[in-house]
Each structure stands twice: as structure tokens, then as C-alpha cells.
Amino acid sequence: MNLFEHTHEKQIRKEAPLADRMRPRTIEEFVGQSHILAPGRLLRRAIQADQLSSLIFYGPPGTGKTTLARIIANTTQAEFLSINAVLSGIADIRKCIETAKKVRTEQQRRAVLFVDEVHRFNKAQQDALLPHVENGTVILIGATTENPYFEVNKALVSRSRIFQLQSLELNEVEEIIDQALADSERGFGDKKVVIAANARQHLAHVSGGDARAALNALELAVLTSETDAEDFLNITLEIAEESIQQRAVLYDKDGDAHFDTISAFIKSMRGSDPDAALFWMAKMIEAGEDPRFIFRRMLIFAGEDVGMADPQALGVVSSAAQAFDYVGMPEGRYHLAQACLYLSTAPKSNSAFAFFDAISAVRAEQADEVPDTLKDANRDGKAFGHGEGYLYPHAYRDHWVAQQYLPDVLQGRIFYQPSAQGYEASIQENVARHREAQLAAFLSQTVPEQSGSSNYWEARTLDNSGELLNDVRNRLTEWSKLSRNTLALVLNAGDGLLLGEFLRQISEETVYALVNSKQEKQILNGFFTNPSSGIKPKIAHEVSTNPESFEIADLRFERIVGRNVLQKHVDKSGFLETLKPWISAEGVLVFGETVPALGQRLSDLIPEKLLKPELRKSLKAAEEEIYHDAENSRSNWTPSSLLTELESANWNIKRWQVKEFSTPTMIHSTQIKTWFAMQADSPHSSYGQRLSTHFSPEQLHDLHETFRSEVAGNVVKWSSVYLFMELCKKTDNDS
Prior knowledge:
Layout: H1 3-15, H2 18-21, H3 34-37, H4 42-49, E1 55-58, H5 65-75, E2 79-84, H6 90-107, E3 111-116, H7 123-134, E4 139-144, H8 148-151, H9 154-158, E5 161-164, H10 170-182, E6 193-195, H11 197-206, H12 211-223, E7 233-235, H13 237-244, H14 256-270, H15 274-286, H16 291-306, H17 312-327, H18 333-345, H19 354-364, H20 381-384, H21 422-450, H22 456-462, H23 466-480, E8 488-491, H24 497-505, E9 511-515, H25 518-528, E10 538-541, E11 557-563, H26 572-579, E12 583-594, H27 613-627, H28 639-648, E13 651-666, H29 669-675, H30 687-691, H31 697-710, E14 715-729
Parallel strand pairs: 1-4, 1-5, 2-3, 3-4, 6-7, 8-9, 8-11, 9-10, 11-12
Antiparallel strand pairs: 12-14, 13-14
């Protein structure tokens, strides 16, 4: 280099921007990035030992990526080569490679190639460089503001160690400002610059952790300000504000800043922080993001994160998006803000994720046949029975009726779990009560059939329609007078009807249940396990109804409640006697029992004109004999006979009520077929078999056909009689 070239280069360095002049020359001068450059850290040790492998520095502008590369250039004994990915082509890369090979051959030194903005390399450029990084011809040091895992050739990334640089802290930017003011050689140390504390803080704050932006603003402030009478140059807050004005928002619509900012926006709304949500949205708009993209994200959010907690959220955002299309910018920012604030302050629920559980079930289950009652009856419905037995909900009270909607294999499966937030809280109980009544009706009608029970026709005559079950549940719950801490036991709890209601009204810790089988316990555990806490209900299964089932000594209940608990017991008062040790001194029994002897007679389902008087009379007489069969404990009792038993068994009868219910009920052809099934291994298993002792085979066949043709598929008024009772142990004062 001759004298003129040396003078020219010195002049260039002198006239370079302050940010370039103040670049740290050694690692000791470097400010910030202590997470990778603090004493003992890997990168610092590698630089000091001059033992570098390929590196990629990744971080926002002004955080020191290029400066670190220059420090390495000043420190290493290797040949340091530098190119810019934007300005350099394949020819420049090849030239650097040739230089690296020459240095290695002639001087036995390594070569370090610094590539600024390495993410801007196209595929051809990266492919041209890759083999020489792999074989060690050059050690690559790349610098990028974009995530290298997405923007840089994967092969280059896999052969490099990634170091992420972070935006500088405010105190670090202030330290860099002070260095520039104190450095006489490269900064303004030869001037009497006095900067106000709030001016320094403002430059550091508005620069957003970008040292280059802060130094550029400082330089502008110094060079455009005049000295006072004592030759001091005072940088006030006003001067600092004019010098930096507004920093450019760091935001690349195809890069990390884009995805990070939209992520922060979504998470702020999800966290119900309207201030943060407005800030991140403002950053996106200020950086030039398409408002329609933001609206699309808010529409997704309205369904995913607000959902049923506020069903109006989707409409609000949709209307705001439509209004924005009408109005445009800048006034459309009001609609952006309104949608953002509505979502941020709305109650939150992600219960719509239930859809993905349903998708998993669809993929996992093969037997997902549509139930016949739900099939389209307009196409060959009569021939195949499609649509037969469907109950039209609007024909029932509250426009709801219990019937099967899921496939058999999924019956009782729960996908949707309403949250306790907003609107969803108001429907949570109603959804649960419908489910429980539906499950109870389904289990009551299918379990006897599936188990081959001989009394399926009697189970039908007990009537388990959802509407009736709702009434029974409400009455038993009301009579039980529950408080939050009532210690309660639900007997015959396998259908889930009462257990669900008790779990809602009482603490999970004080509700117990007895069921008749492991299958019932498994079903109820799946149905009633608390989705948020994972707490399972306290359920035991004991055929003998053993109080030791819960393995708790001296367990005494304030309420023992059940539906149709006494049906299977021949000695009903004797069974009640076994419950006395379970009842606390102030405890009561509350039972609801169907009374088959007073309930629906199947003969009454046949229109009067279709049976001859003599045949109808014989049929009714046969039915009465069946219902009063001394061997049939399920139906051979009446409220008056039970009352006599209990009074003599030393029970205090607090309440006693017999109530008749009339419920619209669909009679299915499959039910009638079961009523008249003739099972050889059980001579008294069905209604038809019991009638067979009173009628000839021809008469029985005619009755079956009459039921099938005239009753099947009809909705009838089904009569059920329930006995509700509240009992407690007699005390000395009651005698």
C-alpha cells in the first residue's frame, strides 16, 4: 500500500459512520450477548483459543453479528475472507475458495469465510459453497437475521454451530452510547458532549436493542447541535427525540419476526390481555402486515379459543372483517381494534377441540354403522326398517327425548366437554343432564337384552324414557335436600342418572356409589371422571351390597338414595334392614321405585276394535295373573303391601307418595319381537311365554302379529307408576 492509498483509507475510516467506527475490536470491548460470550462460554473460549469451527450468527439487526466476525478476523491467525450474499455471486465464492486453497498450500494456514446475510444465498450459491465447508477448505461464519433452520441450506446448518444473538438490553445500549461519547479516537471524546439521562434512556429505548440505530441517532444529534457559550454540546430529550424520531419496526412478513409477532398476538388474546394484544397488532399494522391476514387469524381464534364460551365472538369478528372491507384503511383500524378487544376480553373455551377427538374415534372405530332409527326413511325405508322408531324431539316436552344417536360401540362416549366459562357455563348442566338421562335409558333397555335376561319385557314395562327419568331424578334430588358437604351413597347407580346429579351438587369427596358389575363401574368411571382434575368417582361393585366395599371404617351416610333399588329383592323390608348400619343418626333413605303392578298393561296398547271382547278380557286376566305371580318379586308387590311391611319393621316413614306418569313412548318392532321370544331354556322368560299357559299357539301368534302390525312404530302414552319414599330409623322419641 503506497502513501496515497494509506491516506485515503485513513480518511475513509475517519469519515465512516459512528456505528462503524465504534465497532469493538476485541472481545473485551464487546458489549452484550453474555449468554454466549461471558467468560468461560464456548464461543469466547473458541475465539480466544483460535479454534473455530463453522458458525452461524443469527439475530436481529444491530446486535453484533458482523462485529463478532470482525473480532474473529482480528484475533485469528487464519486468512479472513469476507463476502456479502446479496452482492456476491458464484464467481466470488469460487475466487474465495481459490484463495483459501492457495493459503493452505503455500502458508499452511486455514481460511475463514465470512458471509453476511447468508440467508440471501440462493440454492446454487449454497450448493457451490457446501463441498468446501464439508472438506474443511474454508471455515464458514454466516450472519443472518432470519432463522437459519428455515432459510439456510440444511446441509450447511448441520455442519455449523448456531449462535442466537438477542436484542441488547437498555443498560447495554446506554453503555455503548457512553463508550462513544468517551472515545477520543473513534467517537466524540474530543468534544464536550453532555447528554441528559432521559435523552440517553430515550435513545436506548427507541432503538429497540439495536446498537447501530442508537449510535446513528447519537451521531445525528451531536453533528446537528450547537455548542453553548462554554463550548459544551448539550443533548437534551427534545434533541434525542428529533434525532431518532421513530425506529423502523423489525418485521419481515416471510421471516421469524412475522411468525413470532402473530404468535405473541394470539397468545396475548388467549391470555385475556387486551393491552398486549393491541400492542402486537399495532406492530403488525405499523410494519405493513395485511389486515386481512390478521382478521383471518382472529376468525380462527374465535372458534378455537373463545368458542362456545361466547358464540357471538365469531359473528363480531366476521362483521368487523366485513366492515373493514367496506371502509378500508385508515378508518378500518377501528374494526381491527374492536375485534381484537372483543376476543381479548371474551370468556375462553377450547371445547371445540372435541371435534378432533371425534376424528380420532372415526379413524379408530370400524363398527360405525348408523343406527336404523337415524337412517333416511325416504329410500327403501319400509323394506329395511330405516327410520323406524325415530323419536321426533319437537313432539316432546322441552323439545328433547332420550334416544340413541351414536353407533352402538360408541354409546356413552363423550367428546364435548363444556367449560364453566361464559355462555357455556349456562348449558353445562343441561348437557350433562341430557347425557345422563340418555345413558340411563340406553343402559336400562339394552343391558337386559344383551345379557339375555329373561325379564327384558318387564324392563320395558318399567319404562325408562328420558323424559320420565328426568322427572324421577328431579324428585329424588329435591327430596334428598342435599348440601355441598352431604355424605351420600347412591345405590343401584349403574345407569348414572342420580350419580351425575349428586356429583354436581355435592363435593366429589363425599359422594359414593354402588353398582352391580365391573362393566357398570368402568362405564361410569369413563363418564364421570372429572376432565380437569382427573378425579374419579368413588364407585364399588358388590353383588352382595357389602358396606365394606369402600374400605372405610365406620362409614355412615347422611343420605342413601336410589332408583329401583328394591326391585330385585324378594324380602324388600329385609334388604332395607341391612342398610340401617350404613345410616347416620340423622340420615335418611330416599328411594324411587317403579310399581309394575300398577303400571302399563301391554294389552291397553292395542286399539279396542282390534280385539274381540272375550279375547281382551282373557288377555287382561292373564296379565293380572302375571303381575301378581307370587314368585315374581319384581312385580308382585304394591305400595300398600310394602307400607305394611315397613311399618312393622320399625321404620319411620317421613314421606310416602305414589305418582303416575304418562310419557310419550315409541314402541319398536324389535321390542315386540323380544316380548314374544320363546326361549326353551327359560320357560317364563318372555311375555309371550307367560301368556302361552293361557292361550293356544294360534291365538298367541295372532296376538304377536297384532302387536307387530298395529303397535310397532307408534308413539303411545305409556303409563308408569312410581312410589317415592323417605325413611329413617325410628328413635325412642318416635315410639
